[in-house]
Specification:
The chain is an alpha+beta fold and 340 residues long. The chain has a domain at 176-339: T-fold. The chain is 26% helix and 25% strand. Helix 1 (14-35) packs antiparallel against helix 6 (142-156) and helix 6 (142-156) runs antiparallel to helix 7 (295-308). The protein is globular. The chain starts with a strand and ends in a 7-residue tail after the last strand. 44% of the residues are buried.
Length: 340
């Protein structure tokens, strides 16, 4: 995942909180060992090497994640797809320098993409690919999955108030700080005067992002679009604001954006987010964000929003917003949030 995870936990027993947090961190590290695409000994690497030749046995946790990934792919009209790895490879998006995908290679890779090519056996807990060349890349949901595992550890340890974030793009909240309605999250909407751009176009912060025990958190690793139920949303750009606020309580927020992770190859804009259906870079959407009860679901949806540029027709309960390249915000919401 190559991601920094940070925790804010609130309680009276410091020793207990420290122990619970250390256990949650160990769970995240175990998740990395299983699902890393770049570790030859990981379970995911073994699946990618062997599953086109024979069924590969996996643990129940991994099996359930793969089953969820297939459901989320269908739910997002294929805009999120865990079999996108062959396309990532032809664009060299796993390397530091991307390169243009030639038409024959792109078409060959497209033939190896689609969750229908992945067979899951719930009785034997096995994974099998029905075609040579199929490969899984769980980067679109791995952080959300890891957050969910860490959240589970803290809840089992009876931690009543905690905030966990992964790389400032995925956030999970447990409860709320005492005396508040929820964890107050802030994301940047536009570059501010206290920010500068590096030579590669990425944003540099004059102040570190982070969170404080009073329930205020600011994660500003990229342009921001804020999502929250109506009447809690401070719209991007309202009253001159370049940011917005969302209050999270027992929910997860995921933000996807190509900012700082895009390049130009042969005159073509290439981001790290591809449209699995076409094999080509996602359209010009600056940022997309989603709130859901499950951090894995939130992460998959925010990725799909970048690809679709609109709300999926069969979206589960979530609140989502999209900020296209022209900076006009298009918020969508589904039940129960539109009744709040």
């Amino acid at each position: 995942m190559n991601t920094r995870f940070e925790f804010v936990v609130i309680g009276d027993d410091e020793s207990h909180l420290r122990g619970a947090t250390e256990e949650a961190i160990a769970e995240i590290e175990s998740c990395e060992d299983r699902l890393s695409l770049f570790r030859p000994g990981s379970l995911l690497s073994r699946i990618n090497r062997r599953a086109s030749m024979e069924p590969v046995g996996v643990d129940r946790e991994t099996f359930e994640l793969l089953a969820a990934a297939k459901r989320l792919s269908a739910m997002t009209e294929g805009a999120f797809d865990p079999t996108v790895a062959p396309l990532m490879k032809v664009w060299n998006l796993h390397d530091s320098a991307s390169s243009a995908a030639d038409a024959p290679s792109l078409e060959a890779a497209r033939q190896c993409v689609g969750v229908h090519l992945v067979e899951l056996d719930p009785d034997r807990l096995t994974v099998r690919f029905t075609k040579d060349g199929v490969s899984l890349d769980l980067g679109g949901i791995a952080k959300g999955h890891a957050l969910g595992l860490a959240e589970g550890v803290l809840r089992r340890a009876a931690v009543d108030a905690a905030l966990i974030h992964a790389g400032a793009s995925s956030v999970t909240a447990i409860g709320a700080p005492p005396g508040t309605d929820g964890w107050k999250i802030g994301l940047a909407g536009m570059p501010r005067d206290d920010e500068s751009e590096s030579s590669d176009g990425s944003r540099q912060e004059s102040e570190p992002h982070g969170a404080n025990p009073q329930g205020a958190a600011s994660f500003t690793d990229g342009p921001g679009a804020f999502v929250c139920p109506p009447r809690r949303l401070a719209p991007l750009g309202s009253d001159g604001a370049d940011h917005s606020i969302v209050f999270l309580k027992d929910q997860s927020l995921s933000v996807s954006a190509p900012h700082g992770r895009e390049t130009t190859v042969d005159g073509q804009r290439v981001t790290h987010i591809l449209d699995p259906r076409t094999g080509r870079p996602a359209p010009a959407v600056r940022i997309a964000a989603a709130i859901a009860d499950d951090p894995t679901v939130a992460e998959a949806i925010s990725t799909a929003l970048i690809v679709l540029g609109r709300r999926p027709r069969h979206l589960p309960l979530a609140y989502v917003t999209i900020l296209p390249a022209d900076s006009q915000a298009y918020p969508f919401c589904t039940e129960p949030f539109n009744a709040v």
